[in-house]
Design brief:
CATH class of the largest domain: Alpha Beta
CATH topology of the largest domain: tt1808, chain A
CATH architecture of the largest domain: Alpha-Beta Complex
Radius of gyration: 17 Å
Order of helices and strands: EHEEHEEEEEHEEEHH
Number of domains: 2
Number of helices: 5
Distance between the termini: 53 Å
Number of strands: 11
């Protein structure tokens, strides 16, 4: 079955909305099955709450360009990594299902990725960090309002840190500037020049 959403929902703008009420895992799976063929729609489940998010062009552009520059950095610095993109993280017992925008194993593959990246165009929604905590993802980056916030898991809580502990030499200001440049070829030149200096 293909679910049709109004054209406004398929626009260039990201939207988030939480369905009112509490839902069991089985109810979530039923709703998930109904919308599974809807293009550009993500569904998040956390502790009985369901959030829908449409993916606009701005979101997808930033996500994709960030991934390109992170891969360039990994290759240039000889850092072994395994990109796993937005592979779904779900666990009925942990009462959570979601997809990061990008995720990576640093070094070898483990039970869960080491690093996750989430692009936030529309604020609000479910607790940003709680879903990552359930899978003990060591480091989570949030891109929001042309700023990168980095959180590191310390025990059972996340702590905001100034730079990545996986990529301590990465110049975040350079990365942010290059991601926002309108010409990706010029941005690549500037980024490579910056990380080689």
């Amino acid at each position: 079955m293909t679910t049709q959403f109004p054209k406004e929902s398929q626009s260039l703008v990201e939207e988030r909305f939480i369905i009112p009420g509490y839902y069991t895992w089985e109810q979530f799976e039923t709703i998930e099955a109904v919308v599974k063929d809807a293009l550009g729609l993500r569904i998040i489940y956390l502790d009985g709450y369901i959030e829908f998010m449409t993916l606009g062009e701005a979101h997808e552009n930033i996500k994709s360009v960030l991934a390109i520059f992170l891969a360039l950095y990994f290759f240039e610095k000889g850092i072994k990594f395994i990109p796993v993109g937005s592979a779904t993280r779900r666990d009925k017992n942990k009462k959570v299902s979601f997809e990061p925008d990008e995720s990576y194993y640093i070094g070898e593959k483990k039970e869960h990725p080491d690093l996750a990246v989430e692009v936030i165009i529309t604020s609000g929604g479910l607790d940003k960090l709680e879903k990552y905590k359930r899978f003990k993802i060591a480091e989570v980056w949030f891109w929001e309002n042309a700023k990168i916030s980095i959180y590191r898991l310390r025990g059972n809580e996340y702590e905001e840190i100034a730079y990545s502990e996986f990529l301590p030499e990465l110049d975040l200001a350079l990365l942010i500037r290059c991601v926002q440049m309108p010409d990706i070829l010029e941005a690549r030149k500037e980024f490579m020049k910056g990380i080689r200096n």
